[in-house]
Structures are given as structure tokens and as C-alpha cells.
Design goal:
2 domains, NADH Oxidase, four-stranded antiparallel β-sheet, 322 residues, binds flavin mononucleotide
Length: 322
């Protein structure tokens, strides 16, 4: 029987820090208490302009929570998760405990090996179509986490990318937008967060796909235009309800989808501008049925993307109080 020791839990926390987060803000902290890992949101790392309510912060922490679960599963344990266990402590997002020993299935193992291979890919993808059986697996990943992934058909894809462009324009007019982008865009000497120049990717020369304005304020000569795939595969991740519990669910679903996609050799780009402008988010949602768009994801095939930096595990671990 595998043992739960602090070293194993630290390795799982280290894996969790490889999760995606808005502008690589890494808004999480962890505390190991005996055999339990507590996952905390770090509100000091919230992006005030883009994310006034902390929705994307919670999605990012949810992605780290899913990654922690996947790493614990791969270490030979089925994790028990208690979300928001203490109403008096809203930043304590979850308690996770390796509960029952069980060999990981080959799928669980493959999912865990995708953790370090998954990177946001902002380069043009090939024009190859994402096959229906692959789309089904991504949909299943969302359902597994209590969310829904809808891959846009031809007509709605055109609408979603144009909504994305409209959202990007609106954000450019929001006070503090560029200053905040600048704070999270490299070069950031000595920092192990934010977006490095190598990860920004080119502009879409035809200005169709709403790539984020990384690098605008840095006047990066390296950020040139390139032609992107003419018919991007675009999917929308939704949840029923729009409170922190569902944001957390959306983050876990997002990371399960991204890891399954990575396992299937797909390239992925989370695109969140359309859900950062409330009136545009409403169009992608169905308020009548309380179904809310949480994220747009671009999927396809492309050359592998490189890793971005992470803060060391010692920096995200809260020291034991006793
Ligand atoms: C909530 C959330 C929103 C994101 N929004 C965008 C986005 O609009 N555009 C983009 O290019 N990447 C977006 N990303 C990807 C992050 O920038 C990326 O995860 C982070 O820089 C770390 O890089 P990595 O994913 O390669 O590890 C988002 C990620 C999350 C979790």
C-alpha cells in the first residue's frame, strides 16, 4: 500500500502549480496539514481590472485543484475533496485528502503525465479538423466535472469570434486595462509569474481570432502578424449557476478538458475576453436556464508550445503554524 507522506503531498502540490491561470497570476496557496492539503485562493493576486469579482481567479484555483486531484490519483490514491469547507473562511477553497489507495488506471496515469506537457498555445494551428470522437472525449471531460462544453458550429463560431473581438475592443477602453496587462507581461526581471515574450505568439494577421493584447505596451518587435487557421475550432464551457462553487467547478472542468486535449495531442488556448464583458458574456450564456459561459477555448493541432515559469513550491506553501 502506498504511503501518504509529506514528500508525496509536496510533489502533488508542485504538480498543481503547473495549472493554467489568468495571465499566469498563479493565485493559489496550499497548506499541508497531516494527510490533508488545503487549497487557498490568494486574493492579492486577483487582476482588479479584468476580474473584479474574482471569477477568473477562482477558475484558476479550480484548475490547480483538479491538477492536485490528478496528481494524487496518479500517486495511487483516490482523493476526497471537500469544497468550501468553512463558510467563515471563503479563501479556503477546498480540503483534499488521499482517502483510499487504488492503482491509477492507464487513463488516470496518462492524464497526470499530461500535466507538465500542457501549455497554452498562442500560435496558428493547422487547418486539420478536430475529429468527432476527440470532441466527444472533451465533452465527456466537462460532464465529468459537472460542466458542459459546447463546440461551436459554423455559424456560432463566426458569432463567438466576433464577440471576442468586440470584447477585446471594449476592454481596451476600460481604465487601467493596459497598465494591468503591463504588470503581468514580461520582461518582469526576477519574477516567476506573468507571461514571458516567448509565450505571447503572433497576432492574427487577418484580425479574426481575438488573441490577447500581450506585448502591446512593451512594443515588442517580435510580435508580428501571422495567418491563423481559417476555421478555428471554438468551444464554450458553461455551468449551471454562477457563484464561487460553480467557478471552482468550471476551473476543474477547464483543466480536465485541457489535460485530455493534451493527452490527445491537441493544442489549446483559453480565451476569456468574451466572458470579461458582462453584456457579451450574457449573449454566450442562457440566463433563463441559469447557464453561464465561463470560458471560451480554441482547440486544434499545432507545433508544441513552451512552458511558462512558476513560483517554487516553497513560495506557495503556507508554513505550519505549530
Ligand atoms: C481563467 C483563465 C483565463 C485565461 N485567459 C486567457 C486569454 O484570454 N488569452 C490567452 O491567451 N490565455 C489565457 N489564459 C491562459 C493563461 O494565460 C496561461 O494559463 C498562463 O499564462 C500560464 O501559461 P500555461 O497555460 O502555458 O501554463 C487563461 C487562463 C485561465 C486559467
Amino acid at each position: 500500500m502506498p504511503t501518504v507522506d509529506r514528500g508525496m503531498l509536496i510533489r502533488c502540490v508542485e504538480a498543481a502549480t503547473l495549472a493554467p491561470s489568468l495571465h499566469n497570476s498563479q493565485p493559489w496557496r496550499f497548506r499541508i496539514d497531516g494527510e490533508t492539503v488545503e487549497v487557498y485562493a490568494d486574493p492579492a493576486r486577483r487582476l482588479e481590472v479584468l476580474d473584479p469579482h474574482g471569477r477568473e481567479l477562482t477558475i484558476s484555483v479550480g484548475a490547480a485543484l483538479f491538477t492536485l486531484r490528478a496528481a494524487i490519483r496518479d500517486a495511487g490514491w483516490i482523493p476526497a475533496v471537500e469544497a468550501y469547507p468553512d463558510p467563515d473562511e471563503p479563501d479556503l477553497v477546498a480540503r483534499v485528502r488521499p482517502e483510499q489507495p487504488a492503482e491509477p488506471s492507464p487513463e488516470a496515469h496518462e492524464l497526470a503525465t499530461a500535466i507538465s506537457r500542457r501549455h497554452t498555445n498562442r500560435r496558428p494551428f493547422s487547418s486539420a479538423v478536430v475529429p468527432a470522437d476527440v470532441v466527444d472525449k472533451l465533452r465527456d471531460a466537462a460532464v465529468h466535472e459537472g460542466a458542459r462544453l459546447t463546440v461551436a458550429d459554423r455559424a456560432s463560431r463566426t458569432v463567438i469570434v466576433s464577440l471576442g473581438r468586440a470584447a477585446a475592443d471594449r476592454l481596451r477602453g476600460r481604465g487601467g486595462y493596459f497598465a494591468e496587462l503591463n504588470r503581468w507581461t514580461r520582461p518582469l526581471p526576477g519574477r516567476l509569474d506573468g507571461i514571458p515574450a516567448h509565450a505571447m505568439g503572433p497576432w492574427d494577421a487577418l484580425e479574426r481570432i481575438p488573441m490577447r493584447d500581450f506585448g502591446v505596451v512593451m512594443s515588442q518587435p517580435s510580435r508580428h502578424g501571422e495567418e491563423f487557421e481559417p476555421y478555428p475550432t471554438i468551444a464554450v464551457l458553461t455551468t449551471v449557476g454562477d457563484a464561487p462553487a460553480q467557478w471552482l467547478q468550471a476551473g476543474q472542468a477547464l483543466q480536465r478538458i485541457l489535460l485530455v486535449a493534451t493527452r490527445l495531442n491537441l493544442a489549446t488556448t483559453p480565451i476569456s475576453q468574451p466572458v470579461e464583458i458582462p453584456s457579451i458574456r450574457d449573449v454566450l450564456s442562457d440566463p433563463r436556464t441559469d447557464r453561464w459561459a465561463q470560458m471560451v477555448i480554441r482547440l486544434g493541432y499545432g507545433a508544441p508550445a513552451a512552458a511558462t515559469p512558476r513560483r517554487p513550491v516553497a513560495e506557495v506553501l503556507i508554513a505550519q503554524s505549530s
